[in-house]
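Batch manifest, entry 17 of 40.
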Amino acid sequence: MTTPQEGPWLDDAAGRLIRPYTVSGGRTKPTTALDLLSMVMATGSTPQAHMGPEHSLALGLCDGPTSVAEIAAHLRLPAVVTKVLLSDLVDCGALTARAPRFHANPTDRSLLEAVLDGLRQRL
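Output type: structure tokens
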């Protein structure tokens, strides 16, 4: 039996009921450039085009700024499939997308040391 948080494509006994590429209609290239760290957020407008249940689940996860990687994890779908779904929602105006922000120097030693210190404190 399918549980709500797992979505319509997972079943406790049978496992994955629908192949991931079926969810995206066989498409593997999103129309919107999305990175795993891209932030997406619902605009509040309702999609005019018919969207599948996977689109609705993805849209429901975007009340606040949420990364593509986080949505893929919640949906238990490959990132490329999630990017196609989110791209559909951006195209119809239901989501906005923002590229990830990086510091001027992504290998800043002080930043890496601060992350390492934080990890050590958690152990």
